[in-house]
């Protein structure tokens, strides 16, 4: 192939490779399978040597498991400006370097971080992008070599782990399976080829790479030649034989360029395999050309279906977003307006809840009324106990008698009797407060209730209120003249003590009625309405110099789902745009 034709071929191929790399860079592969080449092989099949020859860089090699994480190898041919440059990325890390000798150590470091030091494997992807004028435009994913027997501390199920990881890649119809098989082994026993046949029984998307042709036994050449010429285990994409650097050549520091020349000389001089050169079924150079063309053909074939898959994903994602509650806008101006509206809606809801206009879940006012009723019942139940106060209790209180004559009472006696009984209501009142605190928090209510009991110790009520209660008990009508009231009491009650007790009962009923309403009113005002007011003030203060992004960040499952859907929707939108422009 002359240089002009080869250059034209590269120009026609490059856009397809770039398109898939672009789709992968925006994350389409997280939702949909993209056309790619997966490289698989048994341990010591020569897989690393093939990739090394294709990329022109020294990759980790040795005995046992060398590739412990999927390695995406993106080769990009550049014509000017760059001699050699690489970018290694995994998770959120990215490292750029221009010294090709650092590749092996960087990959080992990444594998140790992802899979741990030792011989374990990990399914997280490491990406190595190589830009050089000496590479072909090609993207490959190198997968761990298949180990049959665990050694050197490997997990007992290491074979299952590796096969499970490999299957995830090769079972996808968008993947071309590149199976590396040594010529000096029985191909029928190769695990890698068996796995490829299981997921691709017709061999439509499998290409076989035969390595180590210099190590075959004499007399087996024709048998190997039949395999390469697709006569033994037919594969639609066929086979290619390659001879890469061996360990001895690496130790002798034979360069990759020299190894390529040695490879061509080997096939030209080989009496059986010489014919493969003319059939383009031998050498790394032929392999690179074949893989690139296979990948591009696969991309062309997959693009219409991929475009339809992206369209369907876009519809599904939009439908899923509709099922989520509306979230905050992404732009700063819209986010600030959304925050303001959200706060105002919250304030309106709090106000409606505090006034009993809005019921969300359990009825707050219904809960409070239940507790207030218990309080009212308790107060009414205390009336008989007060009425049953004995004359002995009154007599005991003659300790407060001053210089008044026998038969006349000291006001202090009346006051002490009432204060004693009113004080018994303080604990139930605090109990009511503590029960309500389980629903609403507000310290001011506790202070106001204590103040109310302090005021009740003053033993005061307006004369009309007292006379109204007196009328209800005596069934008589009174004016506000003191002497008239005194005469009625003197005539109605046989002893002064009975009169005192009756007067105390009248006032206690006034206290009961007052407390029955006052406590619920204080709780409603200070524990409910003022709490709502304070909440409203606090919420409005958030708008002053607020970090809108931080305030609108959602940690709920719905919020996480919505953010994920938005991210996926955006990458699908970009993917559709890229494919539409390309097609």
From TrEMBL:
It is found in: Cytoplasm. GO terms for biological process: defense response to virus; receptor internalization; synaptic vesicle budding from presynaptic endocytic zone membrane. Its main location: cytoplasm. Belongs to the TRAFAC class dynamin-like GTPase superfamily. Dynamin/Fzo/YdjA family. Pfam families: Dynamin_M, Dynamin_N, GED. GO terms for molecular function: GTP binding; GTPase activity; microtubule binding. Residues 497-583 form the GED domain. Residues 31-304 form the Dynamin-type G domain. Transmembrane segments: none annotated. It comes from Cyprinus carpio carpio. Keywords: Cytoplasm, GTP-binding, Nucleotide-binding. This is Myxovirus (influenza virus) resistance G. One of its GO terms (cellular component) is presynapse.
């Amino acid at each position: 192939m002359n240089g002009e034709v080869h250059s034209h071929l590269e120009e026609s191929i490059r856009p397809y490779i770039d398109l898939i790399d672009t789709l992968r860079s925006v994350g389409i592969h997280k939702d949909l399978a993209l056309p790619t080449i997966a490289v698989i092989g048994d341990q010591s099949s020569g897989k690393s040597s093939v990739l090394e020859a294709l990329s022109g860089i020294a990759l980790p090699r040795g005995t046992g498991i060398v590739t412990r994480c999927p390695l995406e190898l993106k080769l990009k041919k550049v014509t000017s400006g760059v001699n050699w440059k690489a970018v290694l990325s995994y998770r959120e890390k990215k490292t750029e370097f221009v010294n090709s000798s650092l590749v092996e150590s960087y990959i080992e470091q990444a594998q140790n971080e992802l899979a741990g030091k030792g011989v374990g494997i990990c399914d997280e992807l490491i990406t190595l992008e190589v830009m050089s004028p000496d590479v072909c435009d090609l993207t490959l994913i190198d997968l761990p070599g298949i180990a049959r027997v665990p050694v050197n501390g490997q997990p007992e199920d290491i074979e299952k782990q590796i096969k499970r990881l490999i299957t995830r890649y090769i079972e996808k119809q968008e993947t071309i399976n590149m199976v590396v098989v040594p010529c000096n082994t029985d191909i029928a026993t190769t695990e890698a080829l068996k796995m490829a046949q299981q997921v691709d029984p017709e061999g439509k998307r499998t290409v076989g790479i035969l390595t180590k042709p210099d190590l075959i036994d004499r007399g087996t050449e024709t048998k190997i030649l039949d395999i390469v010429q697709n006569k033994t285990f037919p594969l639609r994409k066929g086979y290619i034989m390659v001879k890469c650097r061996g360990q001895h050549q690496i130790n002798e520091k034979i360069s990759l360029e020299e190894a390529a020349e040695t490879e061509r000389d080997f096939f030209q001089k080989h009496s059986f395999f010489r014919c493969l050169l003319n059939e383009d079924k031998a050498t790394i150079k032929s392999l690179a050309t074949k893989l690139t063309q296979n990948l591009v053909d696969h991309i062309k074939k997959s693009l219409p279906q991929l475009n339809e898959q992206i369209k369907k994903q876009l519809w599904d994602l939009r439908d899923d977003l509709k099922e989520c509650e509306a979230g905050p806008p992404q732009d700063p101006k819209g986010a600030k307006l959304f925050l303001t509206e959200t706060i105002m809606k919250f304030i309106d809801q709090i106000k409606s809840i505090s006034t009993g206009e809005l019921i969300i879940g359990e009825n707050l006012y219904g809960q409070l009324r239940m507790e207030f009723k218990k309080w009212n019942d308790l107060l009414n139940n205390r009336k008989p106990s007060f009425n049953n106060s004995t004359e002995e209790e009154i007599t005991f209180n003659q300790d407060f008698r001053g210089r008044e004559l026998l038969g006349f009472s000291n006001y202090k006696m009346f006051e002490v009797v009432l204060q004693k009984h009113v004080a018994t209501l303080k604990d139930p009142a605090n109990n009511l407060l503590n029960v309500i605190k389980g629903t609403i928090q507000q310290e001011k209510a506790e202070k106001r209730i204590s103040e109310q009991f302090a005021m009740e110790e003053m033993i005061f009520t307006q004369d009309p209120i007292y006379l109204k209660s007196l009328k209800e008990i005596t069934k008589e009508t009174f004016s506000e003249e003191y002497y008239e009231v005194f005469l009625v009491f003197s005539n109605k009650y046989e002893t002064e003590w009975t009169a005192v007790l009756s007067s105390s009962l009248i006032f206690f009923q006034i206290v009961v009625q007052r407390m029955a309403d006052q406590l619920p009113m204080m709780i409603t005002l200070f524990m409910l309405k003022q709490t709502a007011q304070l909440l409203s003030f606090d919420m409005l203060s958030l708008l002053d110099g607020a970090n809108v992004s931080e305030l609108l960040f959602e940690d709920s499952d719905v919020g996480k789902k919505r953010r994920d859907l938005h991210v996926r929707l955006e990458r699908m939108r970009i993917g559709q745009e890229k494919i539409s422009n390309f097609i």
